[in-house]
UniProtKB/TrEMBL annotation:
Domain of life assignment: Eukaryota
UniProt xrefs under PANTHER family: MULTIDRUG RESISTANCE PROTEIN MDTO, P-HYDROXYBENZOIC ACID EFFLUX PUMP SUBUNIT-RELATED
Integral membrane bound transporter domain location: 409-536
Keywords, in A-Z order: Cell membrane, Membrane, Transmembrane, Transmembrane helix
Name under which the protein is recorded: p-hydroxybenzoic acid efflux pump subunit
Keyword Membrane assigned: yes
Transmembrane residue ranges: 21-40, 46-65, 72-92, 98-116, 128-149, 155-174, 398-416, 455-478, 490-507, 519-540
Organism this protein belongs to: Thalictrum thalictroides (Rue-anemone)
InterPro entries: Memb_transporter_dom
Main location: membrane
Pfam families: FUSC_2
Cellular compartments per GO CC: plasma membrane
Location within or outside the cell: Cell membrane
Protein topology in the membrane: Multi-pass membrane protein
Length: 810
């Protein structure tokens, strides 16, 4: 059974959280035993137990053995970045010269150097920054009494103890392996996919709306569970590489687990897309034999966990002879579902290099063409491009922002309390983000977590003030509690980490004075550090997330336009078409990355404070993001269908030459229609505001002929002039020409399963064409809603706005 019931979900969550809490508690206990109850010599060497605890929290939380090994390496690398330069700086400047102002400049410079490289892992950077804060802040306080080598050695040993405890905690009592976690989640995903597949087949065979919608509703719930499983598998993928030499056979890495899961997820999403495209049930199935087959599969459809395939479904479908007469438009959704079922069997591999069948075309293989293409595009080589990416204006601005935040946090923290000033810098260093985040929300979470942890620590010290060991043990329930806080919306990982660190610094150390006084000072220092981070963020990166969301939306539309432009057929040149398919796949990957960035910025904009600004239109952006994601999926299916027709269909060249132009013409009409509309939407979302647009129009004294729309039509605009009838005409023409093509192929008497696969691929391409045109019209409505939400007092006319944009270009 898949984890679908409430009790199963609850047990799974408890096991996961308690397991993480146990590992974290064990690592903290190892550090506590060394720093509180260990030999006196060792306690003196670990002079900064706070750094040890911070290292544990950075490495162990939600970690596997692979994560711990990677974290240990990051701790070593961070120590090289933090400690070694400090020894040289101490030798150059001398300890007596470390005033507060000197500390400010040294911290800013050191932080800039650490943050600038893009390749360094975030954990290594945070450990290095924490070491920088302690190294220079303590030196500023102690002056000449600080050892030139002993002080950096204490910092390095404190970090090493935390890293050692982290690895040991992931090994005892038995190792928590990433490959085991991934394998378990993959099995759960396969079971989840089996249930979803069965529900989709039942929905396809449903006899009425009530039954069909009920199956789709159940499948939607399972799809959310599948998405979370896919996310976990993706997160654990990198950790497996650190464990591979010890415990994994190289054969398991022929194809990455996340690629297998995604290859299974894509057809399931396609089935959902097809089943939700029709307003009512039952669906038409093109062939009665296939209808009977689907009915028999309703209770016998499954995904095998070993190979992620449907055991007999594909062969059964392809062995059935579809009607010789090509299906009409009403059959497309059901045939697309059948096409997706065959994709589950074939295990779509979107990143696998493509070879051309020599019998189909004697052209050179794709790798040769790609090599020439890359040499023409990048004559200097990849190394210069990589270096240019690493050192860019964006990276320099990020490094400057982080260095100023940390430097001023240490500076003002030491002005407030010189002896405790490094706590403000440590708060910033441990939670430093090296990309955009919801600044106000994260600062609020960190502040709340710090206060919660400090109060818990003070209360525990008050209750168990005479019993150091029991006081330390009181950390365990708090660690369990914060492990649940990590997954909550209220505190998230940032707030939970601050809460557990706040308690650890009070209950896991000794000889720091009265706990209540320390808690007050640390809360004040944390506030100083967070305030410095917010102020620097606002000064150096003033663009609001809501404004950035519109910019990212426009970029996504631009990438979508590139995908649409590349969707075409050139059957006369197979090598050129396969190269075009490869480029299209790369553009689809870029669009997917841009959509991920857009979703992240939308989440930031949703939680940022409005102040005197207009509220963020989250609902409009959410609709647009869903529409863009759906179009990306449609392009993916269309690309796969075209790839099969070109590469694996074995259609005689004479037949292709005869019918290629007609089929290509229909596809080109769809492409131009979609491209025209997307280009218009891209330009509409690129304008800052309607008020600014009207000012430019008045300044240039431009008169618009809105009724005739001459300005728009002169520039090739036709997006909102496309009617439902025209879309139906294009789809009908494509199906008619495909029917003629199938008739010709049937005369050559190809293998039955190959002929059926060609019919399914052409049907899938027809479905994708129709779906793209429909979704483009839906996107036009969503863009209009977005502009209307930004201008509530204005009656929005997209045609009129586009005419104004065109007028400014002329």
């Amino acid at each position: 059974m898949v984890l679908t019931t409430v009790s199963d979900r609850t047990r799974s969550i408890w096991r996961s959280r308690l397991g993480s809490a146990f590992r974290t508690g064990l690592a903290c206990s190892i550090v506590g035993c060394i720093t509180l109850f260990g030999p006196l010599t060792l306690q003196k060497m670990v002079a900064f137990p706070a750094l040890s605890y911070v290292t544990v929290i950075l490495i162990v939380s939600e970690a596997t053995l692979g994560d711990a090994l990677r974290g240990c390496w990051n701790a070593i690398y961070g120590t090289l970045q933090g400690v070694l330069p400090a020894i040289f700086i101490f030798w150059m400047l001398g300890h007596a010269r470390f005033s507060i102002s000197t500390t400010l400049f040294v911290v800013i410079f050191s932080t800039f150097v650490v943050v600038l490289p893009a390749s360094t892992h975030a954990v290594a950077k945070r450990i290095a920054l924490a070491q920088i804060v302690i190294l220079y802040s303590v030196t500023s306080v102690d002056g000449v009494h600080t050892g030139a080598l002993l002080h950096p050695a204490h910092v390095a040993v404190s970090t090493a103890v935390g890293a050692f405890a982290s690895v040991l905690a992931l090994l005892l009592p038995f190792p928590r392996l990433a490959h085991y976690e991934v394998r378990k989640k993959c099995k759960l995903f396969n079971k989840n996919a089996s249930e979803r597949l069965a529900l989709y087949v039942k929905a396809l065979c449903a006899e009425n709306n009530k039954e069909g919608l009920a199956h789709l509703s159940q499948a939607k719930i399972l799809a959310k569970t599948g998405s979370s499983l896919l996310q976990i598998i993706t997160l654990k993928q990198e950790s497996m590489q650190w464990e591979r030499p010890q415990c994994i056979s190289p054969q398991l890495y022929y194809m990455k687990p996340v690629d297998k899961v995604q290859a299974l997820e894509l057809p399931l999403r396609g089935m959902e897309l097809a089943l939700t495209s029709s307003p009512s049930f039952p669906f038409r199935v093109a062939d009665q034999e296939l209808s009977n087959l689907l009915l028999s599969l309703k209770e016998n459809t499954s995904v095998r966990s070993d190979s992620s395939t449907i055991s007999e479904t594909k062969s059964q479908i392809l062995d059935k002879s579809l009607q010789t007469i090509f299906p009409d438009k009403n059959d497309l959704p059901s045939l697309f579902v059948l096409y997706c079922i065959t994709l589950v069997q074939t295990d779509v591999k979107t990143d696998q290099p493509v070879k051309i069948d020599a019998t189909n075309n004697p052209a050179p293989i794709l790798e040769e063409s790609m090599k020439v293409h890359k040499q023409e595009s990048y004559p200097i080589g990849i190394s210069w491009s990589d270096w240019n990416d690493r050192i860019s204006c964006e990276r320099i601005m990020l490094a400057l922002k982080c260095s100023l935040s940390l430097g001023f946090a240490v500076f003002f923290g030491m002005i407030f309390s010189k002896e405790n000033g490094f706590w403000s810098g440590l708060t910033v260093a441990v939670g430093m983000a090296f990309e955009r985040e919801a600044t106000f929300k994260v600062a609020n979470l960190k502040a709340q977590g710090t206060v919660l942890g400090s109060i818990y620590g003070v209360l525990s010290c008050f209750i168990f003030q005479r019993f150091l060991f029991i006081r330390f043990l009181s950390l365990l329930p708090w660690i369990v509690f914060t492990s649940f806080l990590r997954q909550s919306r209220m505190y998230a990982p940032a707030g939970a980490a601050s809460a557990v660190i706040g308690a650890l610094l009070i209950l896991g150390r000794k000889n720091y004075g009265p706990p209540s006084e320390f808690a007050i000072v640390r809360i004040a220092e944390a506030f100083i550090g967070l305030a410095c981070s917010i102020i620097v963020e606002l000064l150096l990166q003033p663009t609001r997330a809501s404004t950035l969301s519109k910019i990212r939306l426009s970029e996504c539309l631009g990438k979508l336009h590139e995908c649409a432009q590349s969707t075409c057929l050139h059957f006369s040149s197979v090598s050129k078409q396969i190269l075009n398919i490869t480029e299209l796949k790369e553009k689809e990957k870029k669009l997917k990355n841009h959509l991920s960035v857009l979703l992240k910025v939308m989440g930031e904009a949703e939680v940022e404070p409005n102040f005197w600004f207009r509220p963020f239109s989250n609902e409009c952006y959410d609709k647009l993001h869903r529409s863009l994601s759906k179009m990306l999926e449609i392009f993916t299916f269309a690309t796969h269908a075209i790839e099969f027709l070109v590469r694996d269909s074995h259609i005689p060249i004479a037949v292709w030459k005869e019918h290629q132009e007609r089929v290509d013409r229909d596809l080109d009409l769809m492409r131009r229609m979609v491209c025209s509309s997307i280009k218009c939407l891209n330009e509409l979302t690129s304008i800052k505001s309607l008020a600014a647009l009207d000012k430019k129009i008045k300044r240039r004294d431009i008169t618009l002929d809105l009724e005739l729309g001459k300005l728009a039509n002169a520039n090739g605009y036709r997006g909102w002039n496309v009617h439902e009838d025209e879309m139906e005409k294009i789809t009908g023409s494509f199906l008619q020409h495909s029917r003629e093509l199938i008739d010709k192929i049937h005369a050559f008497k190809l293998e039955k399963h190959l002929e059926c696969q060609i019919i399914l691929s052409l049907s899938a391409l027809g479905f994708c064409m129709n779906a793209l045109m429909k979704e483009t019209r839906e996107m036009e409505k969503h863009v209009k809603d977005l502009i209307q939400s930004e201008n509530p007092s204005t009656d929005i006319n997209l045609h009129e706005i586009y005419c104004k944009i065109n007028a400014l270009r002329t």
